[in-house]
Amino acid sequence: MLIPTLLFSGAAIMRRRDFCRSALAAGTLATFPSAQALAAAANAMSVAGSVRAVTGAGAEVDIEAGAVRELQDSLRGPLLMPGNAAYEDARKVWNAMIDKHPALIVQCEGASDVAQAVSFARERNLLVAVRGGGHSISGKSVCEGGMMIDMSQFNSVHVDPQAKTARVDGGCLEGHIDRESAPFGLVTTAGVVSHTGAAGLTLGGGFGRVCRHFGMACDNIRHVDIVTADGTLRRASANQNPDLYWALKGGGGNFGVVVGFEFQLHEMDPTVIAGDIVWPGDQARQVLEFYGEHGNRMPDELNLNIALVATAEGEKRVSVEAVWCGDPARASEVLSPLRKVGQPIADTVAPVAYAKFQTRHDNANRHGIYSYMKSSFVNELTPELIDEVVALHRGDGVYWMYFMQAGGAVSRIGPQETAFPHRAAHSNMMVISETHEQKDRTADIAAVRSAWARLEPHTVGFYVNLMEADDGRTRANYGANYERLVKVKNRFDPGNLFRLNANIKPTA
Fold first, then answer.
1. Backbone region of residue 342 per phi and psi (left: phi > 0; alpha: psi in -120 to 50; beta: other values)
2. Ranges of H-type helices in 135-248
3. Cα angle vertex 37, ends 34, 39, to 5°?
4. Contact 160, 235 (CB under 8 A)
5. Cβ neighbours of residue 78 under 8 Å, at least 6 residues apart?
6. Domains of the chain and CATH, by start
7. Distances (CA, A) of 24 to 21, 101, 249, 304, 480
8. Residue 191: which of 183, 203, 262 has the closest Cα?
9. pLDDT digits (tens, 9 = 90+) for 106-129
10. What is the rounded CA–CA span in Å between residue 37 and residue 49?
């Protein structure tokens, strides 16, 4: 039984805070009477005084040293706090614009660690962030003053080639799945940057380069093992907790901490026909018109993502990333109409290992990037939208624009069959400003916002994995699915412990 949170008077809090700081400065370490005594001593700050933390409601609390010690003793993995050697690296997430400091970081090594962390946080109403790959662009993978449940060390993949399934731990990255599946000639939808966390991507829906052929990542879940807010490990599938299973297919991180998935895998040649076809910027309209009219009529095996960028020399370019995962003999025939658009200046489409192609943007999107984005779905590339995109591309913006294709198998699932409602989307449209240079981003952010103000009227809803959301926008985004999601939230997280997401507010 964990010791409950104790609240202290202002004077006592100050004394405890001063003591912690002085003890930390002196390099004091606590010794824990457990099998992990050496690791814990290296990984924990002095717990002779209390630990200051923040609740989900924003109130400050002090957690007694004995309760922190009991939490550490209950874990297989380390418990990190400010001052630990590993703390600084552990708190950093992919987007360097996010700079937050959890009071506690639990680095989970198994489902029992997750259950202990969730129970500890719930009993004290702590603010909770869950980190997998740490790719939440708005910083939801980490929190200021609360508890980070860090799943990154819990990351094995087991492929069953006979059953064509993959058992995937909650902290796995998309690249782990690609690499383990490829030797068996198997695949499932897994994003476009391989160091993205599999859980976060899947819970929000999960687009990728083969989603038009095999469905979104969430469409390929056979079951989910999840620790809900009461600290209970549950399985969600078509037969067990079916409402929870439905909600996890697009409802984001609202319902607990996923400790494992079983994904359906599909047979696919490990070599695909893929690469970029590039046009000068003055041909953007022709490319976009073709994409809008013909893109989603192309075979499911073809995925087309468009980027409108400027080169380092300031020259404008329109690039279509094409991935054909069907019969190699048909690739030239299928791509011929696209290649006849305008006058391409480069064409790198060729046979390539799919798992390798999945890593092509990893370095450009490496951890430590300063990234700011606006995005929403478009159901149709109307002439008016194309006019705006072309005008913005001709300007001096410090951003680039990107269209991630949907359609195909994505659109053949009804909007209420899963929590993810945007089955009619043609594409997910984004405006992005990114750099690895440390500099004032005020002007860059303002430029993205200004461009987005012109594009947003042509959009519908948003992809919860990429957008900051308020209550009103979240309700509208889920539409007819929202009330059902609230019912699931009421059952499995009535206290809204898991609120750092496109939040479904409980009414229980």
1. left
2. 174-181, 198-203, 211-214, 242-248
3. 135
4. no
5. 36, 39, 40, 43, 86, 107
6. 10-150 (3.30.43.10), 157-267 (3.30.465.10), 271-458 (3.40.462.20)
7. 5, 16, 44, 53, 52
8. 203
9. 999 999 999 999 999 999 999 999
10. 19
* Cα 129 from chain centre: 13
What pTM did the predictor assign?
A: 0.89
Tell me: the pLDDT tens digits for 412-452?
999 999 999 999 999 999 999 999 999 999 999 999 999 99
Structure tokens at 424: 């009619």
464 and 481 Cβ atoms separated by less than 8 Å: no
Which single residue is written with the structure tokens 């040293």? 65
Question: Is 399 strand, coil or helix?
Answer: coil
Two structure tokens written together for 222: 């056979």
Residue 14 has pLDDT above 60, yes or no: no
Amino acid residing at 379 = N
- Do residues 350 and 402 touch, judged by C-beta distance below 8 A? no
Backbone angles phi, psi at 303, to 5 degrees: -120, 130
Helix-helix angle 383-394:442-455, to 10 degrees: 160
Q: Name residue, tokens 């990984």.
A: 43
Helix (H/G/I), strand (E/B), else coil: 276: strand
Q: Cα(first)–Cα(last) distance of the chain, in Å?
A: 26
Model pLDDT, residue 470: 73
Do residues 302 and 294 touch, judged by C-beta distance below 8 A? no
Q: Map residue 349 onto helix, strand or coil.
A: coil
Question: Which pLDDT value is given to residue 25?
Answer: 34
Spatial strand order of the sheet with 79-80 comes to 79-80, 104-107, 147-150, 128-131
